[in-house]
Amino acid sequence: MAISLDIDQLRTFVAIAELGSFRSAGEAVHKTQSAVSMQMKKLEERLNLKLFTKTGRSLLLSEDGRRVLEYARRMVALNDETVDALSISHMTGRIRLGLPDDYAERLLPLVIATFSRINPSINIEVTCESSITIGERIKQDQLDIGIVTDGDCTMIPGQIVRREPLHWVTAADNGLGHVRPVRLAVGPVTSSWRREAVKALDAANIPHIVTYTSASAAALSGAVMAGFAVAVLPESAIRKGLRPIGEQEGLPPLPPCSITMVRSAGAREPIHDALCSHIMTAVGNLSPGTDPVSRA
């Protein structure tokens, strides 16, 4: 017999995981601490799982709890997206969306197409520019919503929607990763991926030279596929004909990269909420954390 999960319980569970305590979660979902505790007891009983484990005076999400959190986030987001989509289907409006060309190419075509089918009366105007330019235009209210590389857009706060490993990348059929100095195909000096690559190579005392600079991910990939240089790209951007390299080639590890969603001060209407929720559901891949959770 199939088990039906309660969205309200899942929403409370997500709030506990994100805010760190039963008390804070209760304030966020407008419930008493005892009501929050009762909801978690019922959720554990329904799933037949222990979602929390006690460590000293604190509670951590259990291994099962971390697994449930990943699904709970997606279910709550999809629920909210559905409600938003149905509630605004009769509305008209315009949303100005900005994002770098690589995100436009690999992450959002189907996302935007799906949203437009659900909400045909909402017109989305897409502008492809660098993350730093998008951030500046968001601040000036020239764009409503932006999808940016987290480290490239620091002038405006946002919500991280996706994290990915960052890789050294070369053509699948060459051994350029062993060549010294390392020949780099990277973004402009404002690119956080470029900064992380140079920082890692400098820390490992590996000689390197920038031989190709472009703000276009497609151009960087082309330079790599031609055997001209080594690039630094997120996992989802590694297309056919490219391969990740690293330790075997003597290259240092790279930190993960994050994709962030930013909004202008004026983009607070239901249509903006609906698109943000849609993007989070379709693109987001945030893994559950292991932060302590307190009942206090």
From TrEMBL:
**Sorted alphabetically, which keywords does the UniProt record give?**
DNA-binding, Transcription, Transcription regulation
Q: Read off the PROSITE patterns from this record.
A: HTH_LYSR (PS50931)
Q: Which GO terms describe its molecular function?
A: DNA binding; DNA-binding transcription factor activity
Q: Which residues belong to any copy of the HTH lysR-type domain? A: 5-62
Q: From which domain of life does this come?
A: Bacteria
InterPro entries per the UniProt record, alphabetical: LTTR (IPR050176), LysR_HTH_N (IPR000847), LysR_subst-bd (IPR005119), WH-like_DNA-bd_sf (IPR036388), WH_DNA-bd_sf (IPR036390)
Q: Which family does it belong to?
A: Belongs to the LysR transcriptional regulatory family.
- Please identify the protein, giving its name as recorded: Transcriptional regulator
Q: Which organism is it from?
A: Pseudovibrio exalbescens
- Lineage of source species: Bacteria, Pseudomonadati, Pseudomonadota, Alphaproteobacteria, Hyphomicrobiales
